[in-house]
Design brief:
Structural class of chain A: alpha/beta
Order of helices and strands of chain B: EHEHEHEHEH
Strand order of the largest sheet of chain A: 3-2-1-6-5-4
Strand content of chain A: 5-15%
Shape of chain B: globular
Number of strands of chain A: 18
Distance between the termini of chain B: 29 Å
CATH topology of chain B: Rossmann fold
Strand order of the largest sheet of chain B: 2-1-3-4-5
Number of strands of chain B: 5
CATH topology of one domain in chain A: Heat Shock Protein 90
Largest sheet of chain A: 6 strands, antiparallel
Oligomer: heterodimer
Largest interface: A-B, 39 and 37 residues
Shape of chain A: rod-shaped
CATH architecture of chain B: 3-Layer(aba) Sandwich
Helix content of chain B: 40-55%
Radius of gyration of chain A: 62 Å
Chain lengths: 684, 141
C-alpha cells in the first residue's frame, strides 16, 4: 500500500518543478518591464515628432526675428561710427565692427552700402576686412532695392555673396532728420536656423533618455512589487501540488491575489480533510476486503467440505449395497436384489443432487472457466446419450438422430455434455415412459440440438420460470419427480456462458421440446487446437468404436484426432505430434505392426508413445517392435481413458531414450510377457 | 503366487471396514490404517503391493502422507490410488502430479474400482520384474 502512495507525488513534484523552470524564462517581470519601457519610448518619440513638426516653423521665425532685432540694434552704432571715425582713423570703427560681429557668432559677414549700391566697407569673420569694391555697384536688383530702402527684406539662399552665408538681413540706416544714406547687410551662417533645431532635438533626446531610464526603473520596481504576491502564491501552489497539504499561503496583499491565496488555503484545508477521510475509509475498505477474502475462502472451503461430508456417508452406503448386489458378501435372493437396486437408484439420485448443487454454486460464484475449442458434438451426444440411458435403466428409450454431415461445434465439450445430461435426465423424468428424441443438425447459425419428449409437457405460463433455480412445477411434482430444481438452471447458465440460449416449446401432440444452438467451429480442421487436455491420435477404421472412445475423451476435455487409415494416421502423427497414438492392429491399408515400426523409426514421431489395440493377444511382438503398450479389445471408453492417463504419466516421467532401452529389455523376455497376458485373459 | 497385499488408509471407520471386507472377499491380503502416520509405518513395514489413500484425514492428511510415501525409498515404488470425496478436477490433477497412479472419487463403484486395482497390480508386476531384475544385478557389484 505504501509503495503506490509514495511514488506518484514525487513524480508529480518533479514535473511541477520543470514546469516552473520553463515558464520563468518568459517571466511576468521581464514582460512588464519591456511593456512599460516600450510605452514610455513610444510616448517620448511621439512627443518629439510633434515638437519637431509643429516647432520647426516657429524656430525658423524666431531665428529670423532674432537676426532682425540684432541687425536693428547693431546697424545704427556701426553707421554712426562709420561717419564719425572712418575718414579720421579707421581703427575705432574697425574695433566696433569686430566687437559687434563677435557678439553674435551666427554673423559671418558685415557690409556697408550706400544708397547707390556702392560697397563702402566689407568685413568677413574669416578674412577680416576686405577692400571696398572699386566700382562700388552691386548687381543684384532685389538686394539693391533693399539697400536703397525701398524694400525691407531678408534673404536666404543663393542671393548671398558668400558661399557659407545662408541668410541675409539688410538694415537701412536712417539719420535723425530722416535722410537715408547707408545700409548695413548682415550675413548669417548657413546653419544658423538648423543649429537652433538641432539644439532643440538634443534637449528632447536627452529628456527622452532620462524618461526612458526612469520608466524602466519604475516598471522594474513596480513589476517586482506586484509580482511578489504572485510568487508567494506560486510557491504555495507548488507545495500543495507536492502533497504538502499543511502549507498555508496566508497572503495579506489587500488585492485580488489575497482572494486567490485565501481560496487556495481553503482548498488545501478541504483537500487535507478529504484525504484524511479517504485514508480512513481506505483502511476500512482494506479491512472489509480482507474479511471478504477470508469469507470467500471459507465459502469455497465449505463447498468442498460439504461435498466431502455428503459423500463420505454415501461411500459406505453405496459400497455395501453394490457389494451385496454383486454377490461379494454372499448369496442374495431376488427380492433382496430388487430392494438393493431401489436403494442403489436412490443413492444415484442423491449423488446427482450433490453434484448439481456443487456445480451450480461453483458457477454462481463465477469459478468456472470455459475451455472453448472445436469439438465433435455428435460424439459427445452419443456418449452422453449412452450414459443417461444406462443411468435410467434403459427406460424410456432414447432415439438419437444426427443429420450428417455435421460441422464441428465450438464450445466447452465437458460443459455441453453436462447440458445434454441435464436435459435428457429432465426429459426422462417427465416423459411418462414414452420415447425421448435427441436431434442434432446443422442450421444457418451453427449446430442445433433438440431434446424432444412426449410426456406431460409444461403449462405455457410456467415456461419462463422453469429455468429459475430451485423451481418446481408444483409441490406434487417435487414429490413425484424428485430433484432439486437445479438441472435446468445449470443448463441456462452454461448456455449463457456460450452466448447461446435455451428455448422450450410444446411438442406437437403433447410434451416439451428443449433446444439450443451452438456456434459452429470457424477452424477448417479441428485437429490442430492445442489447449488444456492431452491430445490423442486414434487410428482405427471401426467407426463405432472410434466414436465411443472419442465421445468419452472429448467430454473429459481431451483433444482427439482420428484417422481411418494407416497412411492418414502416420501423416497426422508427423504433422500434429499428439501426446499418444492409439492404433488398431488391423488397418485397411497396412498392418498395425508396420505402422508401429514406421513411427518409431521416424525421428519426428519416435518420442510419441504408441499403443496397439487388438482383439488378438500378441503383446510380446507389439512391444518388441516399439509399442509402449498393448491392449486387448474390447475396452470400455472409461477404461481406455484411465489407461491412457496412466501411460501419459509414465511416459512424461521417463525420457524417450530410457523408454526405448526398457523396450529392449522387455523384448528379451517377451515369452514371459506373452505368457502372463494369455494367463490373465484366461483368468478373466 | 501369493495374493497381493493392499493397504487401505482412511479415517472413516465405516469406509475402512467396508474396504477391508470387500477386498478380502475379492481375494486380497488387506491391512488397514485409520490415520496417515500409522499408514506410513505400515507401508514401510508390510511393504504392500498397493495403497488406497484417503485425502481428507485429521492430523496428517492424505497429501502429506502421499508426499512422505513418495519421498521414502521403501515406499516410493508402491502404487497409490487416491480415494477421495473431493470431486474438484484440480484435486485429481494434484494427486496425479504428486505421484498417485489413479484418483477415485467417493462414493465409488465397487466392481469398477476392483477392476482398476487389478489392472494396476498386473501392470505393476510386469514393470516390477525389470525393477527386481535391475536390483538383482546391482546387488553383487
Amino acid at each position: 500500500m505504501s509503495g503506490p502512495q509514495s511514488d506518484p507525488p514525487q513524480v508529480l513534484s518533479e514535473s511541477v518543478d520543470s514546469i516552473y523552470s520553463v515558464r520563468r524564462k518568459f517571466g511576468l517581470r521581464r514582460r512588464s518591464v519591456v511593456a512599460v519601457s516600450a510605452l514610455v519610448a513610444f510616448v517620448l518619440l511621439a512627443q518629439a515628432a510633434v515638437v519637431a513638426v509643429l516647432g520647426h516653423g516657429r524656430i525658423v521665425a524666431d531665428a529670423r526675428d532674432r537676426a532682425r532685432s540684432f541687425a536693428t540694434l547693431a546697424a545704427d552704432p556701426i553707421c554712426d561710427a562709420y561717419f564719425t571715425y572712418y575718414d579720421s582713423g579707421a581703427s575705432k570703427f574697425r574695433d566696433l565692427v569686430r566687437e559687434t560681429v563677435e557678439l553674435n557668432r551666427d554673423v559671418l559677414s558685415l557690409e556697408i552700402f550706400d544708397t547707390e549700391g556702392r560697397r563702402l566697407f566689407a568685413y568677413d569673420r574669416e578674412h577680416g576686412e576686405r577692400p571696398a569694391d572699386s566700382d562700388g555697384f552691386f548687381m543684384n536688383g532685389e538686394l539693391l532695392r533693399a539697400i536703397q530702402g525701398l524694400d525691407q527684406v531678408a534673404w536666404a539662399g543663393e542671393q548671398a555673396f558668400h558661399e557659407e552665408i545662408g541668410f541675409v538681413v539688410v538694415q537701412p540706416h536712417v539719420e535723425d532728420w530722416g535722410r537715408h544714406r547707408l545700409s548695413v547687410v548682415f550675413g548669417f551662417g548657413e546653419r544658423f536656423v538648423e543649429r537652433a533645431a538641432i539644439e532643440l532635438s538634443r534637449w528632447l533626446a536627452f529628456l527622452a533618455l532620462i524618461g526612458l531610464a526612469l520608466g524602466i526603473a519604475c516598471a522594474y520596481l513596480l513589476a517586482g512589487q506586484s509580482l511578489r504576491p504572485l510568487e508567494r502564491l506560486t510557491r504555495g501552489a507548488r507545495e500543495l501540488s507536492k502533497g504538502e497539504l499543511s502549507h498555508r499561503i496566508e497572503l495579506k496583499s489587500g488585492d485580488e491575489f489575497e482572494v486567490l491565496g485565501a481560496t487556495l488555503d481553503h482548498m488545501a484545508t478541504l483537500l487535507s480533510g478529504t484525504i484524511r477521510d479517504l485514508e480512513s475509509s481506505n483502511k476500512h475498505l482494506e479491512a472489509v476486503n480482507t474479511e471478504l477474502q477470508e469469507l470467500d475462502k471459507v465459502k469455497s472451503d465449505l463447498l468442498a467440505n460439504v461435498s466431502h461430508e455428503l459423500r463420505t456417508p454415501l461411500t459406505a452406503i453405496s459400497g455395501y449395497v453394490e457389494a451385496m448386489s454383486a454377490g461379494l458378501l454372499g448369496e442374495v435372493n431376488q427380492v433382496q436384489l430388487d430392494s438393493l437396486s431401489v436403494v442403489e437408484r436412490n443413492i444415484q439420485r442423491l449423488r446427482g443432487m450433490i453434484d448439481q448443487l456443487l456445480s451450480y454454486s461453483r458457477m454462481d460464484s463465477g469459478r468456472i472457466e470455459l475451455e472453448m475449442r472445436p469439438f465433435d458434438l455428435a460424439a459427445v451426444v452419443g456418449h452422453v446419450g449412452e450414459a443417461v440411458q444406462a443411468a435410467q435403466g434403459g427406460e424410456p428409450t432414447l432415439k438419437i438422430r444426427i443429420e450428417e454431415p455435421l460441422p464441428e461445434a465450438f464450445g466447452d465439450a465437458a460443459r455441453i455434455s453436462q447440458v445434454l445430461e441435464n436435459l435428457l435426465t429432465n426429459a426422462a423424468k417427465f416423459s411418462a415412459g414414452k420415447p425421448i428424441e435427441l436431434e442434432v443438425s446443422e442450421v444457418s447459425d451453427g449446430v442445433s440440438v433438440r431434446v424432444i419428449d412426449h410426456g406431460i409437457g409444461i403449462p405455457e405460463h410456467l415456461r419462463g420460470r422453469i429455468f429459475d433455480r430451485f423451481f418446481q412445477i408444483d409441490a406434487t411434482a417435487r414429490r413425484q419427480y424428485g430433484g432439486m430444481g437445479l438441472g435446468l438452471a445449470i443448463v441456462k447458465e452454461i448456455l449463457e456462458m456460450h452466448h447461446s440460449e435455451i428455448t422450450v416449446t410444446e411438442t406437437p401432440g403433447g410434451g416439451a421440446t428443449f433446444g439450443f444452438v451452438l456456434a459452429r467451429s470457424t477452424e477448417r480442421t479441428g485437429l490442430v487446437p492445442i489447449r488444456g487436455g492431452p491430445r490423442v491420435l486414434l487410428i482405427d477404421d471401426d467407426a463405432q468404436g472410434v466414436q465411443r472412445i472419442t465421445g468419452r475423451l472429448v467430454a473429459e476435455g481431451w483433444t482427439v484426432l482420428t484417422a481411418a487409415s494407416g497412411e492418414q494416421g502416420s501423416s497426422l502423427a508427423r504433422r500434429d505430434r499428439p501426446d499418444v497414438v492409439l492404433l488398431d492392429r488391423l488397418l485397411p491399408d497396412m498392418d498395425g505392426f508396420d505402422l508401429v515400426t514406421r513411427l518409431s523409426e521416424d525421428p519426428r514421431t519416435r518420442a510419441i508413445p504408441v499403443v496397439l489395440f487388438t482383439v488378438r493377444p500378441e503383446r510380446g511382438l507389439g512391444l518388441r517392435l516399439g509399442a509402449a503398450d498393448y491392449w486387448v479389445k474390447p475396452l470400455e471408453p472409461e477404461e481406455v481413458q484411465n489407461r491412457l492417463e496412466r501411460l501419459l504419466r509414465v511416459s512424461r516421467r521417463a525420457s524417450p531414450r530410457v523408454e526405448s532401452s526398457e523396450v529392449a529389455t522387455e523384448g528379451s523376455n517377451s515369452g514371459d510377457a506373452v505368457q502372463s497376458e494369455v494367463g490373465s485373459e484366461v483368468g478373466s | 503366487m501369493s495374493s497381493s497385499k493392499i493397504l487401505a488408509i482412511d479415517d472413516e471407520p465405516d469406509v475402512l471396514e467396508f474396504l477391508d471386507l470387500v477386498l478380502q472377499r475379492s481375494g486380497f491380503d488387506v491391512a488397514t490404517s485409520n490415520n496417515g502416520t500409522d499408514g506410513l509405518i505400515k507401508a514401510h513395514i508390510d511393504a504392500p503391493d498397493l495403497i488406497l489413500l484417503d485425502i481428507m484425514m485429521e492430523e496428517m492428511d492424505g497429501w502429506e502422507t502421499l508426499r512422505l510415501l513418495k519421498l521414502d525409498d521403501r515406499s516410493k515404488d508402491i502404487p497409490v490410488i487416491v480415494l477421495s470425496a473431493r470431486a474438484e478436477p484440480k484435486d485429481k490433477i494434484r494427486a496425479l502430479q504428486e505421484g498417485a497412479v489413479d484418483y477415485i472419487i467417493k462414493p465409488f463403484k465397487v466392481v469398477e474400482s476392483l477392476e482398476k486395482i487389478r489392472t494396476i497390480l498386473s501392470m505393476d508386476s510386469e514393470g516390477g520384474q525389470s525393477g527386481v531384475e535391475a536390483h538383482g544385478q546391482g546387488a553383487p557389484s
